[in-house]
Automatic annotation (TrEMBL), chain A:
One of its GO terms (biological process) is glycine betaine transport. InterPro entries: ABC_transp_perm/SBD, MetI-like, MetI-like_sf. Belongs to the binding-protein-dependent transport system permease family. The chain crosses the membrane at residues 38-58, 70-90, 96-120, 166-185, 197-218. This is Osmoprotectant transport system permease protein. It is a multi-pass membrane protein. Pfam families: BPD_transp_1 (PF00528). GO terms for cellular component: plasma membrane. It is found in: Cell membrane; Membrane. Residues 35-215 form the ABC transmembrane type-1 domain. PANTHER family: GLYCINE BETAINE/L-PROLINE TRANSPORT SYSTEM PERMEASE PROTEIN PROW, OSMOPROTECTANT IMPORT PERMEASE PROTEIN OSMW. Keywords: Membrane, Transmembrane, Transmembrane helix, Transport. Gene3D superfamilies: MetI-like.
TrEMBL record, chain B:
SUPFAM superfamilies: MetI-like. One of its GO terms (cellular component) is plasma membrane. Keywords: Membrane, Transmembrane, Transmembrane helix, Transport. This is Osmoprotectant transport system permease protein. Pfam families: BPD_transp_1 (PF00528). The keyword Metal-binding does not apply. Gene3D superfamilies: MetI-like. Belongs to the binding-protein-dependent transport system permease family. The chain crosses the membrane at residues 31-55, 67-88, 94-113, 157-177, 189-214. It is found in: Cell membrane; Membrane.
Length: 231, 245
């Protein structure tokens, strides 16, 4: 960019490259620290979200009277902007990572409950009836019929929730716990230090990509029958 | 008095609404930036989605675009545009938001136009309709529900994410949240959060009603989007409700 203009003052054009490997190597420990927080927040938010979403989805499947409100409420929560969500949680939990975790859990929860419900509703009623006729109890029915049949939808939900949560964690910079997002605002505040901003941004995208691939791999391992059908 | 009561007090003071850079000014800025972003995204995504969908080609590209965009944090793009030659301000915000509004519109338009039955189109041609007439009177009405869903998803998302502009020195209602937080005036912060959440919910509601009003054929309010059981279960839904917020 600097090369484009003819007259360049040294003061104006202090080098501010978009990519700078030396930034990454010099600040490796800081980056890894933020990365660790990012991963921790994402994993915890998705795990807690899933733990709440599964019973909710199971309940919602039992009757439309419950499915309606659950889906309506999830739409409302989903619509609330993340910054507002963190602001709402802040008076309760203060300047801690918990504030971010609660907000992220709310979002992952509403994404997961939709996909879990879709997966459960996709299990054919006659298959469940046959299983019940074979003498399966509720737990067996869930573990051996519902879970395998709904697994692809469950995993799709987990992948969407994980990737979204990785991106959303950055908004946690409001309370100083944004994982790699700290690098983005940190670079912005450090006189627009581009290398730091780009490192944070690229780190987020890479993390989302790795998480998605990891979950895709797990899905492949868990559904060997789908692989057989595909080939 | 806790922060929530302080927020209500703040919102009840008319001066906080009408003064310069008050709520009304911020609201106007918020809405204007959002409208520009959605309009720009529509100009780009609608023709491409319609063309690809009608030709039934490029589904791989559309899926990749929508998945990749989900992985990019809005904050990152807002910051990157702000420190690029575009510079700080509403222009950078609008461009960043438009980038994120494209995938939902593109995906839904693509799926909508791809779903138009080829035989219906053929029948329309056989009845003597020109290509333009087929597009206007067959393709568009049949694809309309999904296209409108895409626009609604994108708009709500843009209105919601426009809040984040405040974190990179931009305007809009998010400013109240950031200012209130920075000045430890948590009542203002909560007031901002309430306003932003209300604006996003009202946008959703208004667009649901609007799309219900302009959708031809069966009138079904999309409030309860209960997943259809006969849909291809297990695939990430192509019309996934966009990227969060």
């Amino acid at each position: 960019m600097g090369a484009a203009s003819d007259v360049v003052l040294a003061v104006d054009e202090a080098p501010n490259p978009w990519f700078d490997p030396s930034y990454v190597s010099d600040n490796w420990d800081t980056i890894v620290g933020h990365l660790r927080e990012h991963v921790w927040l994402t994993v915890a938010a998705v795990a807690i979200g899933a733990a709440i979403a599964l019973p909710l989805a199971l309940l919602a499947r039992r009757g439309r009277w419950l499915a309606g409100p659950v889906l309506a409420l999830s739409t409302v929560v989903y619509t609330i902007p993340s910054l507002a969500m963190f602001a709402f949680v802040f008076p309760l939990t203060g300047l801690s990572a918990t504030t971010v975790l609660v907000g992220l859990t709310a979002y992952s929860l509403v994404i997961l409950v939709r996909n879990f419900l879709a997966g459960l509703q996709g299990v054919p009623a006659d298959v469940r009836e046959a299983a019940r006729g074979m003498g399966m109890g509720p737990l067996q029915l869930f573990l051996r019929v519902d879970l395998p049949l709904a697994l692809p939808a469950f995993m799709a939900g987990l992948r969407i929730a994980t990737v979204s949560t990785v991106a959303l964690t950055t908004v946690g910079v409001l309370v100083g716990h944004g994982g790699l997002g700290q690098l983005i605002t940190g670079g912005l505040n450090a006189n627009e230090y581009r290398a730091e901003i780009v490192t944070g941004a690229v780190g987020c995208v890479l993390l989302a990509l790795v998480a998605d691939l990891l979950l895709a791999g797990i899905e492949r391992l868990l559904t060997p029958w789908a692989r057989a059908a595909r080939s | 008095m806790n922060d929530f009561e302080r927020a209500i007090t703040y919102l009840n003071d008319p001066f906080n609404w009408t003064r310069r850079n008050g709520i009304l000014d911020l609201l106007a800025e918020h809405v204007a930036v959002s409208a520009v972003a959605v309009a720009a995204a529509m100009v780009i995504a609608l023709p491409i989605g319609a063309a690809l969908g009608s030709a039934r080609r490029g589904s791989g590209v559309v899926v990749v675009v929508s998945n990749v965009s989900r992985a990019i944090p809005t904050l990152a793009l807002l910051t990157l545009f702000a420190v690029s030659p575009i510079g700080f301000g509403n222009r950078a915000t609008a461009i960043a938001l438009a980038v994120f509004a494209i995938p939902p519109i593109l995906t839904n338009t693509f799926v909508g136009f791809r779903g138009v039955d080829a035989e219906v189109r053929e029948a329309a041609r056989a009845m003597g309709m020109s290509r333009g007439q087929v597009l206007r009177r067959v393709d568009v009405p049949l694809a309309a529900p999904l296209v409108l869903t895409g626009i609604r998803t994108a708009t709500v998302q843009v209105v919601a994410t426009a809040t984040l502009a405040a974190l990179v020195g931009g305007g809009g209602l998010g400013r109240l949240i950031n200012l209130g937080f920075g000045q430890r005036d948590y009542g203002v912060m909560i007031a901002g959060a309430i306003l932003v959440a209300a604006l996003a919910l009202l946008t959703e509601l208004a667009l649901v009603v609007l799309s219900w009003a302009v959708t031809p054929g069966q009138r079904r309010l999309p409030f309860r989007r209960v997943p259809r059981t006969d849909a291809a279960v297990g695939r990430p839904e192509p019309t996934a409700s966009g990227i969060p917020l």
